[in-house]
Amino acid sequence: MSSTEGEGTPAAGFIDRARDALQALRPRATPDTIGDDETGILSMLGELGASLLDSSLATSDVEDTLNTLAAQYGRADLRVFVLPTIVLVEDPSTSPAQTAIFAAGQYALRLDQAGEVERLVRHARERTTPPAEVVASLSTIRAMRPRFGSVLTVTGYMLLTVGFGMVLNPTVTALPVYVVLGVIVGSIMLVGNRVATLSLILPVLTAFSVTLLISLLVRPWVHDDVLRLVAPSLVSLLPGLTLTIAAVELTSGQVMAGASRLVYGIARLGLLAFGVYAGITVAGEPPAPTSAPTQLGAWAPWVGIALVSVGYYLYSVAPRRSLLWILYALVVAYSAQLLGNLLVGPELSGLIGALVVIPAIMLAGRVKGSPSTSVMLTCAYWLLVPGAMGFIGLSEAAAGTAGASGTILRTFGSLTAIAIGMVLGAGLSRDVSAIGREWRQTRTRGRTDG
Fold this sequence. Notes:
Blueprint: H1 10-22, H2 41-54, H3 59-72, E1 79-83, E2 86-91, E3 98-103, H4 111-127, H5 131-142, H6 150-167, H7 174-192, H8 196-200, H9 202-218, H10 226-230, H11 240-251, H12 255-283, H13 300-315, H14 323-344, H15 349-364, H16 373-384, H17 387-399, H18 404-449
Antiparallel strand pairs: 1-2, 2-3
Helix pairs in contact: 2-3, 2-4, 2-5, 4-5, 4-16, 6-7, 6-13, 7-9, 9-12, 11-12, 11-18, 12-17, 13-14, 14-15, 14-16, 15-16, 15-18, 17-18
């Protein structure tokens, strides 16, 4: 089903007009003035760097990519400096030295856009595409309209909520709650992300609203913890991916970038925890369950992973024919975490998960017809990162629950373990690829000499 179905209905036309009207409230990117850039290489590197940052890549990876491209285009002398919201490219060959500044982080790219950006980088590296063509292609990618309409986008968020809820192995009565909360929060996100003023208070407002709804109307009939009911519906607001990238950057020596992301992620968690605390304060402390809730069972997380893959495909507008590859990445990530749990315990299971999933996805990216590795990695990171655990820990601390500090410490320990696993996995993939490339080149030279 595509978003073009039913375009003739008055309701669909009204939704499309309202969506286009709300675009006026979104912040608009202003073109960067960089002076006389005759070759366009500075513009190309800066625009590519900003797009890669908006694709949720770590600054260390973006910097490596830009330096590789600069060398490919014969400008290894260019100096590149990348922060989470800015890219600087300096040309020391001019007098005085010319510095181009490019803003990033104004809004995140969808999965289909992130995949196109990675494909564009790969083509530029292989074919040395003219810089002006690269910049024009980036403008086209950023202007791409989503394939799915509002209804499918909210449906995708609902499936994400139910899927992540099932990964937590909830009770049967929690499932309809996840459905309702997914529709409510998905609708809020659809509007809030297009209104700059509302987006500033979106974490607090959303967390407060769903907590109040759960505490007053749902909790008396659903025998499950309030935070376990609330956390899956806030999946798009949880900064788990941000915190993990921050840990990777700190581990890679990117102190300024990692520290700024870490502060932002903690602040985001604090806003969400405050919203939950305010909701519980207004509604009153929910009564403790009289009996232990009966959970679905060990099969629930696997069904949840399938739902999460479909939810990602719809909500994040993944590239066409990428659904099975997203499911592959999620299954590998979750299976590796289960293996890590058996080998080293739950706190370090993320290390094994990241160490296994990155080479597995890099290998899958070589298969013809597979989407870009950034698409699969982004989805896998969301399953690896313990953003929900940190959110629950901070919410419990705000409410004065015993054992909250232990949850917070375990969260940051898991983040560190995942970051180390990601660094090791990425390094292992690069080393194996370099060895294989050199092996092929040696064989080619041997045949030529013979």
